[in-house]
Amino acid sequence: MKAVGVVVEYNPFHNGHFYHISQSKSKANADVVIAVMSGHFLQRGEPALLDKWHRTKMALNNGVDLVIELPYVFCTGHATSFAEGAIQLLEAIGCTKFAFGSEEGSIDPFLNTFHLLKKHEEQYNALIKQYVTTGISYPQSLYKAYEELRQNEENQTIDLSQPNNILGYHYIEAAKRLKLEIEPMTIPRIQAGFHDDINTQSTIASATGIRKALFEQHSLHEIKQFVPDESYNQMESWQNKYASFINWETFWPYLRFSILRNTPEQLTQFADVSEGIEFALVKAAKKSETFSQFMNQIKSKRYTWTRLQRMVTHIYTGITKEQLHYSKMPSYIRLLGMTKNGQAYLSQNKKQFQLPLISRVASTNDPMLQLDIRATDMYALGVELALGKQIASDYQTPPIRV
């Protein structure tokens, strides 16, 4: 059985994701779609809208055959780390190809961009340092250095101001640099841009637009046309039990406590907390009644919203620099769910997997897995304290079967 892999968050699974899955399977001529999915905390440094079990069911009911979890150390990391962890896992589970959505829609410009930056690596790094000294943010410095470098490039390259193009580039960079055999494919995004609000004249919307509508309108009905029926059912099931979806505002009292219970010096032990920001974190947490107030006080050219959110994610979960960065390679494949087709793939291929397959977390004491379990526990604690209901722990939940 031939497998194509996708890297996902499904926060939530929407019609654009359904299109991506069907196109990926068709273009790869694959029998099985395998999704490596972020757990309870996401790449932009925020808690998931609803837990990974509901999001796994969304995926399995909409064309995905196997869902495996991207470990916390990768799913909350910078784009390079996120991509490295995800693509290594897809290779380890036997995918011959991986498919990502992009604004570009064609694979050749991505490959051209990779070769351009590899060929001029020293010049590129020098330009980045030059732009950083002007006071602009590191992501802006990367973009400006790239734009300057590609001015004289004859081959078509990608627009690295587009978020999905950026992640797509890092997927290809990871596969090439690590000398993996898995081949890249890209599927063009349709209709909605990454940051676009929902458009009631369409059935396609970005996950960002859907989440914004949910929290502004407080009505699940507002987003019904943008998600498959099974996604809507899972979201309705969550809402019926918990009454509210999750964002940092939900967890703010407990995040605030997590910040203020530490001294500024103690805060520097947590992953991604760079020296100097710790005093601003404490000062802002003392004054802020909401997460939005807190973030607006500390956001600056040097510290982007996403960078700050990753910092506070690690403070909330209690993950230190040493714990986050001790390994750059996944050490297991954590199975979250499968269809009958996915189960058949496992039976046929698991002896060839490059990493051990874990279906029950009690079976291993792997340090990387322990961080995943802690992240689930802290997400569950926030849900219980804020909404008064418990979610299932990693120890209680076997892989979902559809």
Automatic annotation (TrEMBL):
One of its GO terms (cellular component) is cytoplasm. ATP binds at residues 7-20, 101, 164, 189-190. The keyword Ligase applies. GO terms for molecular function: ATP binding; ligase activity, forming carbon-nitrogen bonds; transferase activity; tRNA binding. Its EC number is 6.3.4.-. Keywords: ATP-binding, Cytoplasm, Ligase, Nucleotide-binding, RNA-binding, Transferase, tRNA processing, tRNA-binding. Signal peptide: none annotated. It comes from the Bacteria. The keyword Transferase applies. One of its GO terms (biological process) is tRNA modification. Its main location: cytoplasm. It is found in: Cytoplasm. It catalyses: cytidine(34) in elongator tRNA(Met) + acetate + ATP = N(4)-acetylcytidine(34) in elongator tRNA(Met) + AMP + diphosphate. Coiled coil: none annotated. Catalyzes the formation of N(4)-acetylcytidine (ac(4)C) at the wobble position of elongator tRNA(Met), using acetate and ATP as substrates. First activates an acetate ion to form acetyladenylate (Ac-AMP) and then transfers the acetyl group to tRNA to form ac(4)C34. Belongs to the TmcAL family. This is tRNA(Met) cytidine acetate ligase. The gene is tmcAL.
